[in-house]
Amino acid sequence: MHSTNFLKVSYITLGYTFRKHLLEKAKIGHLRLYSTVQYPFTFTKFSGFDPEQASAGIGTTDAMTCNLIFGLNVSF
Fold it and tell me: Of the N and C termini of the chain, which has fewer Cβ atoms inside 10 Å?
């Protein structure tokens, strides 16, 4: 038997919206840059890869992965 108690951080998003006076010369109405990290941390004493999927491992399709996403929102 293993304890599968855990705390998982699912999403972290950081973004920056540029001020309008910086964008006027380029004739841009709105500009926002952002980055999102999906499943960056799991805090647990479980010795496997993921306590939600105790049978997952390297080489299986069930293991959760950490994803890094960058984005850009622009309007003119």
Answer: N
Q: Which residues contact 75 (CB under 8 A, 6 or more apart)?
A: 28, 29, 30
Per-residue tokens: 45: 């004493």
At 44 the pLDDT is: 80
Residues 24-40: pLDDT tens digits? 888 999 999 999 999 88
**Collapsing DSSP states into helix, strand and coil, what is residue 51?**
helix
Q: Any residues with CB less than 8 A from the CB of 7 and at least 6 apart, and which?
A: 42, 43, 44
Query: To the nearest 5 percent, what fractions of the chain are helix, strand and coil?
Result: 10, 45, 45
Model-level pTM greater than 0.70? no
Question: What confidence category does residue 54 fall into, taking pLDDT thresholds of 50, 70 and 90?
Answer: low
